[in-house]
Structures are given as structure tokens and as C-alpha cells.
Design goal:
Largest sheet: 4 strands, antiparallel
Number of domains: 2
Strand content: over 45%
Radius of gyration: 32 Å
Distance between the termini: 22 Å
Structural class: mainly beta
Number of strands: 21
Helix content: under 10%
Length: 506
Amino acid sequence: MEFERDTIISYETVAEVTGCQEETLESIVPDACPDILRIVDVCGQATLTGKQAREGSVQVTGTVRAFILYQPEGGGGLRRMEVSLPFTCQAEAPGLTERGTVLASPRLRCAEARALNPRKVLLRVDLAVDITACQPVERPVCVGAAEPEEKAICQKQYQGEHYQLCAVQEKPFTFSDQVRLQSGSGEAPMLLAARVQPVCSESKLIGSKLIFKGMVELDLLLQEPEGALTTDHESMPFSQVIEAAGAAEEGDCQVEVEVASFRCDQDASDSRELNVDLELLAQAQVRCRRPVTLLQDLYSTGYLMEVERENQPLCRLAEQSVRPQAVRELLETGELVRSVVDARLALGQVRQSREGKELVLTVDAWVSVIYLDENELVQCVRQSIPVSCRLECPEGARCSCYCACPGEVFAAPAAGGVEVRFTVEFHCLTTETASIPAVTGAQLGEARSAGEGQRPSVVLRMPSPGEELWDIAKAHGTTMEQILQANELEEDTLPMGRMLLIPSTR
């Protein structure tokens, strides 16, 4: 038999994992830097330098650019020592091939350094790398029989939709800007550390082009000439366009921008000017609702038939939401905190657990605060704070979630330590998959009358509970229309407790 066919072209998410790992590196203090008396803090930035799809696995590479802040022997203000630490993260991705696409987002959860001697340090970093592996797939499906009237074929079709990942694209781009330091009126402050976070705030599809824009959030830790520590925050806008062939304009867009390289240096001719140079990578996913027609069943009133079937998975969007969770916590220091200098936050792996009908999402927020103690010494306190979010999620549904921290971290001295306040947003996408029985092929056999003997022209039959009109018509080799006409019924809902006349088709 010949069939009318369609092809569902989409991407399948074959892996969605977070790799957590520690990396260490011993480093020598550069000759231009004084000896280390005491290490105060380590500020850092994780960058994405490469990713590769392999047969059944994924490899992601990157670099942690760390600023080790320390007090030198002999007194004076803080000094910084810059260290670069490369890392590699691997994950299994069954079903992935080299044609697949890998999306990756590395984050520096925590960084610490220990002085092995005044000229040597041991750096330890704690990383989380979100990895999503997407494999392009093409699924041919039967829509219906070609020219069904010729062979007296009756067919049953399913009309629905498939919520699919229809486009996965990425685009590298560069970003450069200049920042003017406004603190003080005399000598310019010294840059101790810088961290950057690109945030996509808006995305929209116009034709085959995905337009997105956002802000590069730059946080600076500065040391004034007299030794006081200050901070500065700058927001720098960006906008870009990605080709997103295969995506519909009504699609749901998700764009994440990662840092591939980052430089922030004081200008040689004017130290109040900071030159910011970034290499960024935009990673976009577009999901859309695609109408789908499936041939669920068929038979012939004139011929016997052998039908081949298989289940087709169709996805439905259950919920898409952003759930903010406000956090207020005390970081205990064991000493009096005179003032807070800087506070920063990094998010770890999102864990999922089920409690009845609810799904509990939990992420660890890694908070670091630089402060001055009662003796005006610079200190640092770190703590991991679990943050949870609950949502109703049916059994068998799949929830994809990533977290973000909009805005800044507020930190202030409090009794016993430092009180911090911040908000964590849980971006949740919940989908359900249904298996729809569908026909993949069929062969016509001999005529129904052959070998069946004399068939009665009319059969009386009581429908069984749950039986459909289609099942009865198929079992007796007739059509639903003939049964409805013979029983003077207007709808295909079977009356309960009533005998049906089943006419024979000859």
C-alpha cells in the first residue's frame, strides 16, 4: 500500500546534566609581587573556551581566571596575583553523534587559595558546568492512505500537536567598551578584581532571525590610594541577531550568553579609564508547537489487511514559569563586623526530588562577603545556602530548570556576622510525553469474502463496556457510517445497554 507521509524534524535532548568538579593548581608568586603574609580572598571568572559533541559523550573545556587577593609582608594595602587554571569536563550523552550540538555554561562556585610559603600558593576552585546535548532527529510518520477509495479503506487519524525543540543555534561575538572610574578626585584607584555576567533580557523571532539584547553586568573591586576598598558596578548594553532556520515566529526562545574570554585593564595613558574586552558566545534554543496528523488505524471493507504499528512519542507543554525565591540569611563570622566591602554569589547544581505530587527543586547559593573587622583588617566569609522551590508536577513529567540571580546581593553587618539578602529565580519548563499508537505500514491480502463462507447480512450485537464504534465497524468489516444509519444514530457515541444492528458490507 502507498501512504501519505510527513516528517517530524526536531532536536532531541539526549543529555541534560551538571558536572561538578574541583581543580587545583600550584603557582609561584611573580617576581614583581611582594611576599605573601596572608591570603584574604580569591575572586574569579569561569570562561567557556570549547565544547565538542562525540559519539555518546560530550567534552567541555574552559579556563578559570582567578585573582588572589593578599596582604603582603611589610604592610600596605592589598595586592593581587592573577592565575589562569584550565579545566575539562566530560559527560555521557547516549544517542549523541558528531552531528549533535552541545550547549554549556560553566560557573565558578567557590575558589580558595593557601600560601604554601611566602612565594608559592595552592589554588583550589569548585566548578559547576551545565551541559545540554541536542541531537537532530527526523521521524517519518504516516498521515493517511493514498487513494483509500480504490481499496474501500477506512482510516482513523489522530489530530494533535508536538511541542518540540525546533532550533538550536549559537553565535560568537565580541564586545568592547570603556568605563570611567568616578571615585575620588586625585590619584586613580587600583583595580583589584573584576567579574562580568552577560544577561539576555529580551529575545524575539522575526522571520528566520532571532533578535536578542541584554546587558553586560560588570562588578569591580577597587583600592583607593589611601588603602580603602570600594566597589563599582557598570551595566553595558548589547544586541545581536542569530539565524534560526526552522523556527516559527510564535516559538518560545531561550538565549544564554557565555563568556569565552575577558579582559578588564586600566588604560596606560589614563588609569581612570578601564578597557573592557569580551569574547561572548550566545546559545539559543527555540521551541514551538507543531501540528501533527498520525494514522492510528485502518482496515478495508473489501480486503483482509496486515497492519504494522509502533508508538509515536508526542510532547506537550505542561508549564513554563519563573519562580522567584527571596533569601535572607546570617553568615556567622565569630567577630564584630565593622563594615561590608563586597558581596558576590554563584549558583551550583539544580537538584530534583519528589514529595507526593510536588517536585522540589534545590540549588546551592555560594555566597562570599569581604568585610572589615573591628581592627579594620580585611576578612572574607563564605557559605553555601540551599534554596528550594516547589511546583506541582505530574508523575512521569519532565522538568527542565535553570537558576539565575537577578539584581545584586545586599549585605550588611549584623549581630554575630553579616546578613545577606538576595533573590534566586527558578526558570522551569515542564513537559509531558504521550505515546500515540500509529501505523507505519500495511499490506492488502485476499478479498474478505474468500474463505469466509456465507456471511449474514445483518448482525445484532451489544457493545462491550469501553468499546468504540470504530472497533465494532472494523471487527465486522463494515463502516461507522453504515452502523449509524442502520441504528438511526447521529453521533458516534454508542448507547449503553442497547443492541446494535451491524449491516454487512458486500
